[in-house]
Design brief:
This protein is of the alpha+beta class. The chain is built from 24 helices and 18 strands. The strands form five sheets. Strands 8, 10, 11, 12, 14, 15 and 17 form a seven-stranded antiparallel beta sheet that branches.
Length: 780
């Protein structure tokens, strides 16, 4: 790169903007915290019948009343937007902090949340929106929750929902970044026995890089685990982890099972009734330790963090968020958080079995990677390269430029060998990334129909984004939470189907564009074949034998055996309207000194040895082509020279267009690869390898030769097919073309114009399938 690493660094950082970067951030964040699980299925916090968000409950009631009952179609959409707004809030917060160059510590300390237009309305969040796009988020405050107390007057009316007549004041919600977003609290719910331990466990994992479940060896000795005297407080086998774990669980003390702040009566606490008043549930239960005013369990450790106690029970989660953000492990945890999204594999773990044959190599790889993470974490906390502290764009840029992104640059050969074996220098694209890549290269997403789908968060239903996402190694953030990092047999089938179904419309649409606007096939047309020397397309305006016109052109032809091919390109027929045909009268070819090389009156075509035609017939006035097919006549060029080809022709005019004719001179040997058509095709192959596979190859490269040979083989097979089955580019029922818009199949649309007399459209489909299933296409 001109300018070296500094220029590359600037270029990479400058790319960190726009929709693509936002999608990377939200997808990467969700891959860790998994809150997109609530995009489908029930989400407790978003239930419009709960009383904690009165604005939402009353809007739901009034809407149902106006519609004549619940679950009317007109009410489903706004409910979906409300649910999406709460579900998406944590990953949108992370993306906002990164995109706006805010201090990354705000992920756990932000005193605001992200809202869309609907959550903004029901939470009285204070943001301003100019549209009702549910995917647009802005920072705001949760000013929409109340406590359940004596001022709450509500009734549930069947088929209409909860009607709230009065309630107390809205609470001052103690925002703590991602930690007390409703989606995070619901994704890691608590129970009366779990007591926020899941929330604490994942807080440690995501934001401190500590997996508590692996932090100490756990015994399976039944005698050691037989203790029933509050073992998490007293049993040494349990205390090892719980001494670290339970104080942080206590800092979530204000959030109940569904994640509402102090959801018990009067807003006093979130402690379960079974703990506070056990005798109400079991007459033989031991007396509770609960005292009025408690907000946490007395039989657990005091809320805090590793020897520190929370300053106040009212805002203990805000307190622990700040403590975590100031911990040195927070910076290194941020690197581990984003590592899988950038590198395509999780952070390496220290090997445990020292007697494994590759223990030394695995240990060396772990130590090298861990040293890099620790060093970069310290830089991140201070400011990378003299920049602002905790700037995530600087962090991501440094990670991309590191040897760990470019794995073949690791200094140690042994470590490099392990990395290439375990991680590779390319990573498998996620279904979302593969879909986005194909859309950028081909112009649309596989499986879309061009219509907006308001019940999809991104506004559309697609095959890789929805139908086959799980099959292709994606996640649903619920039961399936780990992405595939290597191609499986099922995934290979999806990749092949993806290429098969996208290749046909991609080829057909691209050749239908003007050459300068094509995405794939600039510099050729659909009739450029591996044997094409020269060719010219004509519109035949002459409409009778008496007005037959001469259509001529000149070009350089190499010596040797050649074939002149005449192609009728646009056959058309409609009953009671007309039949479009092409009539050929004479063909003349001259060399550069004016000597005739070939002269043919088409009525005598059957007398020419080697002459062929796919359809039509000779008559007293020449030769009539009544379908889109070809006539071929062999001849020989004695020496390299400029030749002139002249055709006397006229047409039967019918339909909206005049007859089209292509005249081409072809070499008889496609394997030579030396014709003008072959060179033009190879130039296109070079471009396709660059665009689709990221390979900068010379036209004489072995990879180009291999792709060209595939093209030759496919073309020759297609010519046999055309001779036996007809010249359509995709012949039902063996073949289909999945055009994605209704207009493509409308009268006169591309779906009605599938003629392929040269066989090259179908041949290019095969080439595209070959490239789109290449390792370099589905890995980057």
């Amino acid at each position: 790169t001109s300018g070296g690493e500094a220029a590359l660094r600037g270029t990479i950082r400058a790319m960190m903007e726009g929709d693509g970067f936002h999608e990377f951030l939200t997808r990467g964040a969700n891959d860790r915290i998994l809150t997109d699980a609530f995009f489908r299925g029930f989400f407790d916090a978003a239930d419009t019948n709960n009383v904690f968000f009165p604005e939402a409950a009353n809007f739901n009631y009034e809407s149902n009343l106006a519609a004549g009952g619940a679950d009317q179609a007109q009410n489903r959409l706004w409910r979906q937007h409300w649910s999406w707004g709460l579900a998406r809030a944590p990953v949108e917060l992370i993306a906002y902090i990164v995109e706006e160059d805010r201090n990354y510590q705000e992920v756990v300390t932000a005193d605001y949340m992200m809202v869309n237009y609907q959550t903004n309305r029901f939470l009285n969040a204070g943001a301003v929106f100019s549209s009702q796009d549910p995917a647009v988020f802005k920072p705001g405050q949760n000013n929409g929750q109340i406590f359940r107390d004596f001022r709450l007057r509500t009734e549930f009316i069947q088929n209409f929902g909860s009607k709230i007549d009065s309630h107390g004041p809205f609470i001052d919600y103690p925002h703590a970044g991602v930690l007390n977003t409703h989606a995070f609290l619901n994704r890691y719910p608590t129970t009366e026995t779990n007591r926020n331990r899941a929330r604490a466990r994942w807080t440690y994992f995501h934001f401190l890089g500590v997996d508590i479940e692996k932090s100490a060896e756990r015994t399976t000795d039944p005698e050691a685990l037989a203790d029933t005297n509050n073992p998490t407080m007293n049993n040494p086998a349990c205390v090892t982890c719980h001494a670290l774990h339970d104080p942080v669980a206590g800092t979530f003390q204000n959030y109940g099972n569904e994640g509402f702040y102090r959801d018990q009566w009067g807003g006093r606490d979130s402690l379960p009734e079974t703990y506070k008043y056990p005798e109400n549930f079991d007459p033989d239960a031991e007396p509770s330790q609960y005292l009025t005013g408690d907000t946490w369990f007395r039989d657990m450790r005091t809320p805090g963090f590793e020897g520190q106690s929370a300053s106040s029970p009212d805002n203990s989660l805000q307190w622990v968020g700040q403590v975590i953000a100031d911990d040195p492990r927070y910076a290194t945890a941020a690197i581990k958080f984003w590592w899988p999204s950038l590198m395509g594999a999780p952070v390496l773990e220290a090997p445990e079995a020292s007697d494994d044959s590759d223990f030394i190599i695995r240990l060396a790889a772990f130590e090298a990677q861990n040293d890099f993470i620790e060093t970069l974490g310290a830089e991140f906390a201070l400011g990378i390269g003299g920049g602002n502290a905790y700037n995530a764009k600087d962090l991501l840029t440094r990670m991309i430029l590191s040897p760990w992104f470019r794995a073949d640059e690791v200094e140690s050969a042994a470590v490099r060998e392990r990395l290439v074996k375990e991680l590779g220098t390319k990573r498998l694209l996620t279904p979302e990334e593969l879909e986005k890549k194909s859309a950028a290269l081909l112009g649309w997403k596989w499986g879309t129909d061009g219509r907006n789908n308001p019940y999809q968060f991104d506004g559309e239903w697609s095959n890789l984004g929805d139908r086959y996402k799980i099959y292709y190694g994606g996640i649903d953030s619920d039961g399936i939470v780990d992405r595939s990092t290597a191609l499986t047999a099922l995934m290979a089938n999806v990749a092949e189907k993806h290429a098969l179904e996208m290749s046909c419309p991609a080829v057909m649409l691209d050749f239908d564009r003007e050459d300068s606007t094509r995405l794939l096939f600039n510099g050729i047309d659909s009739n450029t074949t591996p044997v094409t020397e020269i060719q010219r397309a004509f519109v035949v305006a002459a409409d009778s034998p008496n007005t037959a016109a001469t259509y001529s052109f000149s070009g350089d032809i190499a010596s040797g055996d050649k074939v002149v091919t005449l192609l009728f390109t646009n056959d058309w027929y409609e009953e009671d309207v007309g039949d479009r045909n092409l009539h050929l009268s004479e063909l003349t070819i001259w060399n550069s000194v004016g000597d005739p090389v070939l002269f043919l009156e088409f009525e005598d075509i059957d007398s020419v040895t080697g002459a062929t035609y796919g359809c039509g017939n000779p008559d007293n006035e020449g030769f009539t082509l009544w379908s889109s097919c070809t006539v071929s006549i062999p001849f020989s060029a004695e020496f390299d020279s400029r030749h002139t080809i002249s055709v006397l022709a006229y047409g039967d005019q019918a339909g909206p267009d005049l007859p089209g004719m292509i005249v081409a001179v072809n070499d008889e040997n496609p394997e030579s690869g030396s014709s003008a058509g072959a060179n033009a095709i190879k130039a296109v192959l070079v471009n396709l390898h660059e665009r689709l596979l990221g390979q900068s190859l010379d036209i004489n490269d072995a990879e180009i030769d291999a792709t060209y040979q595939l093209l030759i083989d496919s073309w020759q097979a297609r010519l046999v097919w055309i001779a036996e089955r007809g010249d359509w580019a995709y012949a039902w029922p063996d073949e289909s073309c999945n055009f994605f818009l209704d207009e493509h199949w409308a009268e006169g649309g591309i779906g009605q114009r599938g003629s392929d007399p040269s066989g090259m459209k179908n041949t290019w489909m095969s080439v595209l399938i070959y490239l789109m299933t290449d390792f370099a296409y589905i890995h980057e």
